[in-house]
């Protein structure tokens, strides 16, 4: 089975020619499925873009959402709309809302949106404040003093959702592929070939998911965890332990293109970045 991986396409920034070029590029690799690790678009356009993809690509589309996908509404409203959209198109699979999915007899897939959860780095002294705070209702309608605890809560909720499905997948499969938007470790949070500093880390690392991944990787030493994420728009690979690798994909606004390819046989998943 071949799965085309795409992160941070931000389709709302892509002109028609860029969209067509992306769809054509899929034909070359002939993947059976697409895996999208968030920042598909923004607001209303997310559902439109997912439907458009489902209309242009014949395979299954596994995805999770990124912070931009929640713009112009609340997080809960967006998730509800996405679950509804998946209800009317069976090839759209929102992993945040699903249990583990077999890709082969011994390879499973799980996922969760994740969030930059202010658990790593120095939130208090950071001058960074993402546009998320202006564009997502949950933050826009809340006092800035409460933002840090909101981020922490979102990270905790993500880890709480992921834990049971990750544990179940590790019981069942030799290799577990994990899809999430925000890099779960500072070591996987790449920017121009370097990993993040204390000022950016609070918004670019999902610390709670990182803790969960490390804990479960140690608990299941004979299993292999392969994590795919995005959000930083800069690519890199980090081996956290012998059985836990995080692959972060790069991206460019206005030029959606394949991030990588996963080739899955009975019990392994080989992957490569797209050239
Ligand atoms: Fe992005
Ligand atoms: Fe993002």
TrEMBL record:
The keyword Kinase does not apply. The keyword Metal-binding applies. One of its GO terms (molecular function) is UDP-2,3-diacylglucosamine hydrolase activity. Residues 1-234 form the Calcineurin-like phosphoesterase domain. Pfam families: Metallophos (PF00149). One of its GO terms (biological process) is lipid A biosynthetic process. Keywords: Hydrolase, Metal-binding. One of its GO terms (cellular component) is membrane. InterPro entries: Calcineurin-like_PHP (IPR004843), Metallo-depent_PP-like (IPR029052), Metallophosphoesterase_sf (IPR051158). Transmembrane segments: none annotated. This is Calcineurin-like phosphoesterase superfamily domain protein. It comes from Roseimaritima ulvae. The lineage of its organism: Bacteria, Pseudomonadati, Planctomycetota, Planctomycetia, Pirellulales.
């Amino acid at each position: 089975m071949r799965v085309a991986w795409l992160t941070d396409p931000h389709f709302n920034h892509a002109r028609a020619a860029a969209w067509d070029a992306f769809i054509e590029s899929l034909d070359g690799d002939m993947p059976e499925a697409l895996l999208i690790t968030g920042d598909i678009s923004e607001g209303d356009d997310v559902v439109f873009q997912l439907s458009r993809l489902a209309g242009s690509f014949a395979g299954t589309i596994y995805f999770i959402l990124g912070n931009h996908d929640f713009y112009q509404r609340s997080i809960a409203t967006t998730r509800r709309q996405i679950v509804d959209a998946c209800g009317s198109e069976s090839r759209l699979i929102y992993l945040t809302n699903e249990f583990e999915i077999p890709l082969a007899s011994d390879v499973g897939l799980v996922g969760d949106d994740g969030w930059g959860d202010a658990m790593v780095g120095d939130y208090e002294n950071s001058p960074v404040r993402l546009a998320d705070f202006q564009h997502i209702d949950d933050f826009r309608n809340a006092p800035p003093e409460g933002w840090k605890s909101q981020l922490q809560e979102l990270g905790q909720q993500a880890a709480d959702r992921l834990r049971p499905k990750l544990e179940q997948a590790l019981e069942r499969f030799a290799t577990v592929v994990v899809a999430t938007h925000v890099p779960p470790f500072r070591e996987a949070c790449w920017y121009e070939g370097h990993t993040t500093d204390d000022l950016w880390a609070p918004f670019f690392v999902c610390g709670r998911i990182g803790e969960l991944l490390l804990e479960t990787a140690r608990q299941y030493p004979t299993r292999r965890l392969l994590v795919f994420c995005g959000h930083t728009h800069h690519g890199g690979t980090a081996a956290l332990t012998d059985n836990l690798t995080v692959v972060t994909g790069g991206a460019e606004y206005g030029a959606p293109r394949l991030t990588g390819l996963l080739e899955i046989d009975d019990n392994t998943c080989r992957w490569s970045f797209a050239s």
